[in-house]
Amino acid sequence: MTLPLRTIAVLIAVAGLIDPALTTAGHTRARVAVIVQDTPTLELRATGESTRRGVAERVRSRLAGALGGDYDIQPRVTSDTSAAIVMGDSYPRSGSDSRSDLSVATVTVTGEVAPNVRILRVDAPREVPAGTGVRVRIDAEGAGVAGRTSTLTVRSGGLEVGRASHQWRGGRDLWHADIDAVPIGEPPFVLRVEAQPLDVERTSIDNAVDAVVDVRRVPLRVQVYEPRPSWATTFIRRALEADSRFKVAGLSSTSKSIATRTGDAVGLSDARLDDFDVVIAGGLDRLTETNARALDRFMRARGGAVVLVPDAKPGAGPTGALLRGLTLVERLSEQPQKLAVAAPLAPIQASEMLLVRADAPLVDRLAWTSGADSSPVVVSIPRGGGRLVVSGALDAWRFRTDDAGAFDRFWQSTIAGLALAVPPPVDVSVEPPIVRPGERGDVVVRVRSVGPAVRATIDGHPIRLWPDTPAGVFRGSFVARESDGRSTVTVRVDGASQSASRPIVVRADARRELPQTTAPLSLLSASHRGIDATPDNVGDVERFIRRTVAAPVAPISRRPMRSGWWMIPFAACLCGEWYLRRRRGKR
């Protein structure tokens, strides 16, 4: 009897050392991701005094508790996730919808926001010449505040530099405001647009937006080209020369063999014309086909702006090719008429006019006749990557001294706006232009002529750039500094001696536009074979998960010898064997 007991104990010991594995098919716990969207709009009030995020977190806790006994609950989607439940208020741009085979249920947390005023969009120029005011364009929305008055303020350096007011009408009202502001302090300027909170608003998270405006350190380069002398272009050139923001060059032909050149003017077919931002052309009856093709290329390929200033109705020739899609109708007036203009341009006067009729809808009116028969006189039209401006105010120069020099101010503002919109040889944009410490940002570089290499750095540290479409576009990313301050992104093109830089403002209190909901969250569940519910009907989501998500079958490896219960038979065999040996008088 001692031998069997000893054999059993030895076998148990050997099996424990070998530790054999037994593989069988079995059911494992399915993994379900329960996610609360991370969007600023969830901070808005939903019901009572609760925010949408608070409601979403309570729903998440309830679902995690109800499903936790039968499923593994995860905070995010992984490769082995069987289903997902997303709580939020809008369709996500990425993340939960990255797997097309995933079943997704959604819980839409909305609710009519209490009376609220929010800033939808703030549009300010990226850079302006020194000493130039900034026009800030603002779109705001008021919901449930009919009859109340809101005030928009623009602040620079903590001081108010612009203000506008509006009385809201109806249950939901949109308001567009243009505020002219003069920045204060050192560039780049941070302009904070604030909508003064009303006493009935429940949140001010969407009442302020920051915009960054830098100073353009390169002058606005303009060339005036006259195949023959023209009074209209002469006085426009003089107005620009009196403005320190412009660097003006001129090329005027006084005869077939004699031309007057000022500044660094070049011929229209010269490649160096691309160094200019705007070309002003007069004496259009002497314009050649070669000139017309050069101006058309300057607009379409270079992205520059061309201003045509006729002093009579152009005929069907090279100028007519530039004016295709436009019909010019002469109008003469005994007395000069003051034209209505687009803000912030100064009103000009003219008695001899060409009224512009356009076939294309993309025409911006800069000046037009007032009254019932309002007709455009000065228009701006897109041409490829650039713009074409046609002035039908033929004799406006005759009244240049009226209205405190409105003629000069009109053309100075018009040409400055055109020049600022022309892309430079190397253009650097940063998104967002104002970042929080440690936040990731994106850099987009557009290069007109690509050299052997395009290199970018931020505060001396390299940024890896990747080519993008179209040709000449490069993208990269960076991580902002860990404290408030300013950084600079610098881009250099090897072999082309071209460079550009863009400042970046880092502020912990940066305020940006809240993303507007463009699609409902229910679209996510509809495209992933799921259901959408409200916070009051989360039981439907729980039943959906239990009905559609089964425990997956997977091979289960078991090691029975790792159980501590084997110590009992092992000890029993050894003790029994020892007891029997002692009874027989053996040691």
Describe this structure in words.
The protein is an alpha/beta fold. It is built from nine helices and 37 strands. The strands form nine sheets. It has a nine-stranded mixed beta sheet, with helices on both faces. A five-stranded parallel beta sheet has the order 5-2-6-7-36. The relative contact order is 0.14. The mean pLDDT is 85.
Structural descriptors:
elongated; 5-stranded parallel β-sheet; 37 strands; 9 helices; 9-stranded mixed β-sheet; Immunoglobulin-like; Rossmann fold; 5 domains; alpha/beta; 587 residues
Helix-strand layout with pairing:
Layout: H1 2-18, E1 22-27, E2 31-36, E3 45-47, E4 50-51, H2 52-67, E5 72-74, E6 83-88, E7 103-108, E8 116-123, E9 127-129, E10 134-143, E11 149-156, E12 159-167, E13 172-181, E14 189-195, E15 208-216, E16 220-226, H3 231-241, E17 246-253, E18 259-262, E19 278-282, H4 289-300, E20 305-309, H5 318-322, E21 326-338, E22 340-341, E23 349-358, E24 364-368, E25 376-383, E26 386-391, H6 406-421, E27 426-431, E28 434-435, E29 440-447, E30 454-458, E31 461-463, E32 466-468, E33 473-479, E34 485-493, E35 498-506, H7 522-526, E36 532-533, H8 538-548, E37 553-558, H9 567-583
Parallel strand pairs: 2-5, 2-6, 6-7, 7-36, 9-15, 16-17, 16-19, 19-20, 20-26, 28-35
Antiparallel strand pairs: 1-37, 3-4, 8-10, 10-13, 11-12, 11-14, 14-15, 17-18, 21-23, 22-24, 24-25, 25-26, 27-29, 29-33, 30-31, 30-34, 32-33, 34-35
Helix pairs in contact: 1-9, 2-8, 3-6
Quick overview of this protein structure:
It contains 9 helices and 37 strands. The chain is an alpha/beta fold and 587 residues long.
